[in-house]
Amino acid sequence: MINELIAGIFQPHKLNKKIPLSWLQLTRERTRLAVALAGIGFADILMFMQLGFRDALYFSNVRFHSSLQGDIILINSQSNAVLSMKSFSQRRLYKALDLPTVQSVHGIYLDYTSWKNPETGRPRSILVFGFNPEVNLFNLPGVQENLEQLKLPDVVLYDRSSRVEYGPIAANFDQGKTVTAEVRRRRIKVGGLFTLGASFGADGNLITSDINFLRIFNNRQRGLIDIGVIKLKPGANATTVTQDLRNYLPKEINVLTKQEFIDFERNYWASSTAIGFIFTLGTIMGFIVGTVIVYQILYTEVADHLAEYATLKAIGYTQNYLLKVILQEALILAVIGYMPGFTFALFMYKTARDATLLPVFMSLGRAVTVLILTMVMCFISGAIAVRKLRSADPADIF
Fold first, then answer.
1. Are residues 352 and 209 in the same domain?
2. pLDDT single digits (tens) 178-208
């Protein structure tokens, strides 16, 4: 193989039209090539999983925010996220009606409590939302058609995407069975199903009326809401009205547009918790692991063929030409190694999605991002490994 390579070098224009020198170098040691591709695929899987879980973290925790049918959101200025909301007086929300651009205002109660599995009796924390069912505030499947059910005493809507630890609630309801459970030591009835989904903050969700909410949370005071939703009149500019409300309402109230409310929650998980940092760090570690693996492969390949590279220099090939050969090898490794990593990541996403009920899906942006990171990873490794070529001195051979 080495003799064929050297022979082909004397006719490089023909060699380039047939098989690139970089490909011949890589495929000469097939075991080494397989190890390199496995290493790159492993690094890609690490990056895919970390980025996938990070995006699932952000997306799952803002699905509730995105579902709100309103233009402006009011929360207590001491609230950090849905996970730790602080109540405020509903009178602050009603003051927004003083602005002529405001059409209607609506309050939402939310809190965590204990749900007891009807079959096993095991308790588990669940997130409960309460609102006036006269107007639907949630753009979620199953809510609009069950508003009348919420007007009945001790009736709730159950999130069919909640984790299985809560019991076979959705399955029993779909079979026409009467489903009851104990919530905060109060017997409630499931009057319908809706779809929101589990998140890092809550494994399950309930929606009920504001009256039923206060029956369940009998320690909560009526009129102390957690979220205020404001709907504007047609043609009103949400950004302008938001600024007007900030100037009009007391500083204890944080006034946000709907998108700002979504970003507010996402930023909390990204910067104020260890989870976002851990996933980002995991991605960086995957990148570093891949870089080290590819560097070891390319460095060994250069060291094993140092005499041949010295011969290339002796017959007039420049250092830049040799650098291009190594970078071509890096590019080939990146593209081929990415494919099994991408394929296995799809399988891992499905496994994680089925196990956790979190929205772990492949996206085009993430696929492109990891591909670019893989190329950069391999190019960095190649650039470091190519320094070995400087010691390829033709004088050592001739």
1. no
2. 999 999 989 999 999 999 988 888 899 999 9
Amino acid in the structure at residue 14 = K
Out of 250, 266, 293, pick the residue that ends a domain: 250
pLDDT at residue 395 in the model:
55
Q: Looking at the predicted structure, is the pLDDT value of residue 233 above 60?
A: yes
Residue 228 domain flag: yes
| Shared-domain flag, residues 166 and 218 | yes
What residues make up the domain containing 114? 78-250
| Residue 293 and residue 232 share a domain | no
- Same-domain pairing of 241 and 315: no
Residue 331: per-residue pLDDT? 86
The beta strands (E) that lie in the chain are given as 72-76, 88-89, 102-116, 123-131, 155-159, 180-183, 186-194, 205-209, 224-225, 227-232, 253-257
Rounded percentage of the chain residues whose pLDDT exceeds 70:
90
Do 123 and 212 lie in one domain? The reply is: yes
- What sign for the dihedral angle of Cα 293, 294, 297, 299? negative
Asked whether residue 55 is domain-assigned, the answer is yes
User: What one-character DSSP code corresponds to residue 21?
Assistant: H
Amino acid 296: pLDDT? 83
Same domain, 299 and 374: yes
Residue with tokens 């009736």: 155
Residue whose C-alpha is closest to residue 109's, from 257, 209, 204: 209
322 phi-psi bin (left φ>0, alpha ψ -120 to 50, beta other): alpha
Query: Can you tell me the mean pLDDT for 361-382?
Result: 90
Backbone angles phi, psi at 253, to 5 degrees: -105, 130
- For the stretch 256-266, pLDDT in tens is 999 999 999 99
Tally of structural domains, the chain: 2
In this structure, how many other beta carbons lie within 10 angstroms of the beta carbon of residue 53?
20
Non-local (6+) Cβ contacts of 326 within 8 A are 22, 298, 302, 382, 385, 386, 389
b/e per residue, 325-337, with b = 16+ CB within 10 A?
bbbbbbebbbeeb
> Up-side HSE of residue 31: CA atoms within 13 Å toward CB?
1
CA separation for the pair 216, 197 (Å, rounded): 22
Residue 3 has pLDDT above 50, yes or no: no
Residues 24 and 163 in one domain: no
Report residue 297 as tokens. Answer: 């492969």
Average pLDDT of every residue of the chain? 86
Same domain, 336 and 227: no
